[in-house]
Amino acid sequence: MNARRPIPRAERIARLAARHLLDAGDGAGSVTEVVERLVALHATDPATVHLSVAARLRQPERMAALMDEALYGRPPALVRMLAMRRTMFVVTRQDAPAVYAAAGQQIAARERTGLLARLAEGGGWDEAWLAAVEAEVVAALGERGECSGAELARLVPGLREQVVVARGKPYETRQNVASRIIRTMAAEGRIERRRPVGSWISGQFRWAVAEPLPPRPVDEARAEVVGAWLRAYGPGTEADLAWWTGWALGVVRRALGAVGAEPVQLAEGPGWVLSGDADAAEEGPGPAARLLPALDPTPMGWRDRDWFLPPDHRAALFDRTGNVGPTVWWGGEVIGGWAQPPDGTVVWRQLADRGREARAAVDERAAHLTALLAGVRITPRFRTPLERELSAPPA
């Protein structure tokens, strides 16, 4: 491959800061704008969705009202779905059909295959039994409108059944089938998560019948997803895309060809941008401080992160399986991490010194986030060494 031209680290950082709303610009005016700019928000941890948006909103104090409307309005502007890498994401309803066709439906098929195997092995139930239970779930939601998982289990007897796991082994146990059945139906887009049972940081949701997504050709959808990634995260390498999507390299290369991506040269090697984007100039309004939550899509956007996150900081900011914790940003690069001790204040630690202006700006952002959370304490689902240290009670 003949690279068109080199794109140095400073230019990549400038693109990242501008396109991910991490510079000193005005920020986004809506939740949908944030999601569109980032393609998808990680939603494994419910707090991530809200804090990723708040960090980029023009008026972060309106986060709660704007998120409620976007996620739970009629119809909602955003959709939660299992997609790339079998991870829970939030995407716009407009992009949901392409994301589902490109990644979600394959995951849903694997979920169903695994569920049927578990039911047959652990309880002796077959596909017909499962179909009957699922029909009862849809009927109950059609009658009630919305139900929590616990309410559905009371209304649908089949959801109260249990399967034997690891039969004959010393660690044999029994597990309820409800969560696996509901998860599979959600993965297939038949039911959807509505408001949480509890506050906005709760991981337990009410369920409702979902509006069907229009079908899309798989190859066309994959090209669309790759184009969206390049628009938001490019330039990037084939390895970055393969990691982010969870696809084989051959699939990534076909999608790059279909979208007409252009080659460039990065410090890591050959990279790609959208056609016409190689010479795009990003002259933003200057650096700014941002406090991003655990699993934020920006630090999770590439496999190789050395150009914005020094390798020496990885041990402090990531867990052992590659999940990033809360990060502190200045001018499009990671300079530290943050957490909340028991009193709920937001505290941070500097890992890279970028001067007095940067430290003062981060202190101000930390104070603003403390006020925004108003006593709500966020504990990431995946704990990282620095987050654990900063959030520990004082000795």
Automatic annotation (TrEMBL):
InterPro entries with a match to the protein in the record: AlkZ-like
Tree of life domain: Bacteria
Matches recorded under PANTHER family: LMO0824 PROTEIN (PTHR38479), WINGED HELIX DNA-BINDING DOMAIN-CONTAINING PROTEIN (PTHR38479:SF2)
Name assigned to this protein: AlkZ family DNA glycosylase
